[in-house]
Please model this.
Amino acid sequence: MADVLVVEDEPDIRHLIAHHLEREGYRCRAVANGAEALRAVRASVPDLIVLDLMLPEIDGLEVCRRLRGDAATATVPIIMLTAKSDEVDRIVGLELGADDYVAKPFSPKELVARVRAVLRRARPEVAGRVFREGALLLDPARHTASVSGATLALTPKEFDLLQVLMEAAGRVLTREHLLTRVWGYAHADEIESRTVDVHVRRLRAKLGDEGRRIATVKTVGYRFERAGGEG
Ligand code: CA
Model:
């Protein structure tokens, strides 16, 4: 399930948004200002950012500009919260690159609908898709994985790792790619690539017979082998 970062300095609104997103099944991190937002994104790149325009010190536009200027975060979808309707053209325009905006006051329901729509646009290949290989089935929308109908008890990272591998079935993925996609590290070298190996080993064990589908590609990374495919 998608990881959403909420940036809003008004605690009531921040909690309201986080509450509604979590109720819809999104993983949610909430921070109160621009500096914290940039720190949170550096620690782990979210799938989408709900960004208030009016923030103390580093405002929403500046946060947006900095994210767009960094290759690691240039394409992260951003929904801007704004009370100033006259700034909308600038906010959503090419210049600043927010993907959408929601004007305050807004209904949480409307915001959740926008989040869903923007995510669907950003990752159309994933929305609603179920991955099936042999006896293994992974359903991102329901956040479940099973082998021969038996649900697997995967940690969130193991689930994300399996999803990234299955999305790219048949292709080799480097450890660095897996670190960026699963752990969200904008700078993958800051964490040991051994982390990937450890998680792959645990994931393989949980998959039982289907675990052999995750092939080690010597010195490079891993590849999910398709059932009866090119592998
Ligand atoms: Ca504000």
In short: Residues 131-229 form a domain with the Arc Repressor Mutant, subunit A fold (CATH 1.10.10.10). The CA atoms of residues 135 and 173 lie 22 Å apart. The longest helix spans residues 108-122.
